[in-house]
Structures are given as structure tokens and as C-alpha cells.
């Protein structure tokens, strides 16, 4: 499926209006493959305990969120209010391009990506959602500009302990600070494996992550590798493991903000 051009300014204005008054959290990383979509899903599950939440899958290529939630075969209904979220919990709905195009692949020329993201943000019906959690595409491209044009947001950065990932993530942190979107948290995902009383670090030491935290004023949250998580792909709303409890710290801070 090829997506054609969409007029942008009316979409931006509509997105601004619809996101106004919402607590918008953007889960992002300069690097792919760091577990960003899983973390966005878990944060949305946690915020839904405190108020209605919409989880927006803005990664228009990967669409990992619908698969994690088990709704990859469900299509969005469209009402006069816009694209209706696919409900996965009473207080949690998902918006994704997957629910619009189905199983068709999407070919997006670079100049079209931003248009599609803006359309998704503008036409989504957030209803009475208190929280809007956005799973951002990896990298530093149109998605950063798109979101910055339509709302103020709380950025949460995800990395692994890998130096390669941290080098890329530092550029993202610097960009956000320059754009007056100071991140507060750096999540170091897949940081260790707990084996009895021992901690195994398959990606090496996390010292560089803590150095970045100190340099840019970020709180570091280390998340372990939880092998049981794989069993919940498709039903992640039922996951009750250690990752969820560790992310509670971030969610409490979001709520108290």
C-alpha cells in the first residue's frame, strides 16, 4: 500500500487541539532493537491503572504494539469523532496504522512519513484519556519534528548497555535538551540476568549509562532480561513480572507531575 501526500497544517492544528490537556509520554530511542515497544506497552498498562490511557503506535513501519497486545488482526472503527482505539482493557485503547491497513505492507517515501504520523495523531479519538503514551519509531527523523509541532511531551529514553546504543542515544538526548524537551529517565533495558545470587551482564558494564545520566541529569533505571516475557507476546496485558514493578517508579512520577 502506497500512502500519498496529505495536507499538513490542518492536521497539526487538529492534533494540537486533541492532545491539549493530555499527559503525553513519548517512549523513544535513537537505536532500534532495544525493547522500546515492550516498555511503551508496559508503561501504558501501568498508567491505565490511574486513568484512561491511549497507546499510540507511531512506528508506522514496525507496528510491534498490536502484536504485543494481541490485536494485530483487529481493525479500527471510525466514528464522527475519529479513529476509535481498539480496547485491550477497560481503561486502555490502542491506535496503530496496523488497524487501518490490516496485514498489507506499507511503503512510505521519506517525505510521506511525517504526514502519516501527523494524520494518525490528528484523527485518533483520545476521548477522555488522561494519558497518551506514544511508541516512537527508532532513530532521529520526522517523528521528533512531528511530535514537537503538536504537543509538549515527556520523553523517556530507552537503550541497552551496549556502547553502540549509548553513543546513538546520547545524540538523541542532546537534541531533546536543545529542543527544550529535557528527558528525565534513561531506561537501560536488558541490562542483566539474575541467576540465583549472581548478576550476569551479557552486554557488559553499565558504567557508560550512568555517566550519561550524571552528565545530562537523568535518572537511570536498569531493567533485567526476563525470559518469561516472550510467553506474553500477544497477551502482554497479563504480564506481571519484574519489568512492570520496576517501571512503576516512572509511572508514579508521571502521575504526580
Describe this structure in words.
With 257 residues, the protein is an alpha/beta fold. The protein has a single domain (9-256), classed as P-loop containing nucleotide triphosphate hydrolases (Rossmann fold), CATH 3.40.50.300. The chain has 9 helices and 11 strands. It has helices spanning 9-19, 36-47, 64-69, 98-101, 110-123, 142-150, 163-178, 207-216, 242-256; strands at residues 23-28, 53-57, 78-79, 82-83, 86-89, 92-96, 131-135, 154-159, 185-195, 198-200, 219-224. The strands form 2 sheets. Strands 1, 2, 5, 6, 7, 8, 9, 10 and 11 form a 9-stranded mixed sheet that branches. A two-stranded antiparallel sheet has the order 3-4. The longest helix has 16 residues, at 163-178. The model is unreliable at 1-6 (pLDDT under 50).
